[in-house]
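Let us work through a complete example step by step.
Step 1: write down the sequence.
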Amino acid sequence: MSNRTLKNRSIKIPRGRTLLQDPALNKGTVFNEQEREAFGLRGLLPPRVFSPADRIRHIISNVRRKTTDLEKYLYLSGVQNRNENLFYRVLMDNMQELMPIIYTPTVGQACQEYSRIFSESRGIFISKYDRGRIKKILKNWPHKNVRVIVVTDGERILGLGDLGANGMGIPIGKLSLYTACAGIDPKGCLPVTIDVGTNNQDLLNAPDYIGLPESRLRGEEYDALIDEFMAAASKAFPGVMIQMEDFGNVNAFRLLEKYRNQYCMFNDDIQGTASVALAGLYSALRITGGKISRQKLLFLGAGEAAIGIGDLVSSAMMEEGLSLSEAHANCWFVDSKGLVVKSRTDLVEHKKPYAHDFPFHQDLLSAVEALKPTAIIGVSGQPRTFTPAIIEAMARINERPIIFALSNPTSKAECTSEEAYRHTKGHAIFASGSPFPAVTMDGRTFVPGQANNAYIFPGVGLGVIASEASRVTDEMFTAAAKTLVAQVTEEDLQTGCLFPSLNRIREVSANIALAVAKVVFARGLTSMTEPADLSGHIRSVMYEPDFHPYI
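Step 2: predict the structure and record it as C-alpha cells.
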C-alpha cells in the first residue's frame, strides 16, 4: 500500500485488484500511467488512459441508450458500486435528468423488484434475531466516520405499502441524494434496513424474497429492537444523524416523539415532506398574494405526511398571529372513512387535534363543496382520487386553486399535471411528489413543480453535520422551507413552477444548511464554536468527486 493525503487526511492506497474493488478509490481507466505502475494495475486495465470528462460522457451516453428506467437504475447502481466519484460526478452534472432514475419514481419499481434484481449488498441489514448484538453488527461497516444513517423497516415504502427488506432501495437512494445534493461524503453515509418481517403475502410466498419470510414483529419486542438500534448506532458512530424513513403510521409518529429529544434524528416522511409542502404553499402565495394564515387546507389522507404538513403549516400560521386552535381550524383531513370530525369515534391519536365540530362528509367532493378550501393536498397514496369533478369544484371556488398531488411514485399521484391544468382552464397552481412533464395549453406552457423532499433533507443534514448539532428540530424545517422558497425565481413562478430547478440543488442545499446551522447556534444545540465564516465553513465540508492523481 501507498500513503496519500486525501481531503486533509492521510489514507493508505491499496494495490492491484484490491484498489479496483474499492468504489471510494477506484478510478478505473482514468488511472494514469504513473498510478498504474505504482499501484500494480498494469494488465488489470485496458491500456488506454481516459480523462474524467471522457468517462462522464461515456456513462451518460450509456444511460441514455437504456430502453427502460429500471435498466438505467441498475446500470447506475453498478457504476456506484464500482466507482463512486464517477457516479456522483455524472449525477451532479445531470441532476434534472437522473434524479427520477436514482430516486422517485424509479426507485419504487426497484424496491418492488429488489429481491429479483439483488446482486450486491450495499448497507447493513439488521433482523429481529440480532437483538443483543446490533452494535457489533454496525461495527462491521467498513467506514467508521459515519455521519448520516437512513433507516427503514420497510412497512410503508412510498405509496407502495409493505415491501419488507425490499425497502433497502429507499435508504440507498436517499443517501445518494445526500451526497449529490448536499455534498455529504459517501463514506459517511450508511443505509440500514431493520427486517422485522412483512405482512405482504406476495413476498412471503416468493422463493427469492431476500428478507425474513415471517409476519411483522409488533409490540414490546419490536420496540426493544428499535431501542437497541438507536442506542447502538449513536454509540458506534458518535455524532451521527439518523433519518427514519418509510415506517408505517402505527410506529412513525410515536417513534419520532420517543426519540426526537434523545437522539439527533428526524422522520423525513413527517418533517421533510412537511417542509417541502410548506415551501410549495409559500411559493403559491407569491402568485396569489395571500397569507398562509388565511388559507383553508383540505388534505386527502391523514397519515404521516398529511399530519406532518398540518403541524408545520399550523406553526407557520401561528407566526402570523393565529392561536394553535385557530391554526388547526384551517387544516382539514379526509381519511379512508371520510372527513375527520369530532363526532367520529374511530380516530387514532394523531388525528384528534384536527377533528373539528362539523357535519361528517363521507367523500372528498362533498367535503370540498362544504368547506370551500383554497388548497387540496393529496398524500393518500390513492391514484386519480382528485377527479375532474373535484378539480372543477376547486376552480369554481377559487380563482387560482392550489392543487398538490404529492403521493409517490407517479402511479400513485392523486391527479396528473395535465388533468389539473385542463380541468381548471390553466388556473391551477400545481405541484406533485413525482415529476410530470410540462403541459402546453392554449399556447401557454406550464412547468409543474415537484415537491421533492430532496430539496429539504440533504440541506438540513448538511447544516446539522457542519454545526455538529445534537438534535434536529421542527424550527430547522421551517427555516429550510423559507430558505427554499426564497430561491424560487420570478421566472420559475411565471411558468407555474413552485420550486427551483434541480440543476441548482447544490446551491439550494448549501443555503438551507446555512439557515439550519444558524438555528443550531442560536438555540445552543451544539458545543461547537460558531465559525466566523459559517457559510464558508459549510461549503468547505461539502464533498466533490475527486479524480486527482494519487501520486
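Step 3: interpret the result. The CA atoms of residues 116 and 313 lie 41 Å apart.
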